[in-house]
Hints:
This protein is of the alpha/beta class and 367 residues long. The chain has helices at residues 2-29, 40-75, 78-102, 108-132, 134-163, 171-176, 178-184, 196-206, 211-229, 248-259, 268-277, 284-290, 359-366; strands at residues 167-169, 192-195, 235-238, 262-265, 281-283, 300-308, 315-318, 324-327, 337-348, 351-358. The mean pLDDT is 80.
Amino acid sequence: MLKRIVQVFFVILGGALGFIFYPELISILSLELPGWIASDYVGGLIGAGIFFLLSLWLAGPIARAMSIVEEAIVKAPITDVLFGTIGLVLGLTVAYLIGIPIGEFSVPILSQVLPIFITILFGYFGYRIGSQKRDELVSLVSSFGKMSNKDKKRDEQSSSDSAVPIKIFDTSVIIDGRIADVCRTRFLEGTVVIPKFVLDELQHIADSSDALKRNRGRRGLDILNQIQKELPVQVKIEDIDFDDVQGVDSKLVKLAQKTNGIVVTNDFNLNKVCDLQGVSVLNINDLANAVKPVVLPGEEMHVQVIKDGKEEKQGIGYLDDGTMIVIEEGRSYIGEHLEVIVTSVLQTSAGRMIFAKPKIVEKEKAL
């Protein structure tokens, strides 16, 4: 089938060449021929006949060569063919652009032969480069796609962050350390802002001559470093200060008012100041108290009395989560474990206190 197609191509090519060049050949040879023999159509028939005879000799080798090329293309990976074709098209385009000024030369060899040579050369190199560099081209296209996706995600992140108020950390909540666990659990949304004056206060505490303060300051810096580098939150250190405002707490309130942000603290006094100033505040103690198990009056608990309380005959104990239990008439049981009955619960931003009485005393009163 392929051989027949080649023969048909030869016949059509020969007919076209005979139709075009037959009259010129007769005029060059100055032959005296009848008009109908010298016509274009007769030239086309002669050219078609000559090329048909040539096809009987050349069609077989050309068909076999085309079959080999076809088999190689079929066996080649689709990426090789695709990128090779793209490279071929680019190479031919470059050759055409280069051939335009060369065709303006008056020298026949340069204006006619050289463009053909450049076309073949650039087409070959374009195909070779496209097929051989396919992996690099694919990775290049993929990198552009990833960059656009990253830009899109960054835009989405920035738009979502702009909709969520920023969270401004104060010194106490950083030193406390529990805020790192809150950030780790992703309960805190939006961007975390650490003002420069808070960072300066942490540095000042870490450089204190007092060993306790120095350890607290270094712990705060470690916690801040952990939040910034390890946890899934965006942290910004804002180089901002208010020279006309004295005190870190007042500056925090001023910054929250200016940025419409939320102060994150566990300082009871700062909590009250923010409430008075109309500034939103998140108190870590409120969060801790909210997730503690609910204790109701009348429940029984097992607790160890650690020390005496402020009032007479009071004893103090603690639950595993650190909640303080004030035990009436519990001073005499210091160092002992005993069953107590909850009488009341006091819930504040400073923490939760449970008041109880020993179960033994209650039994004695009942008797």
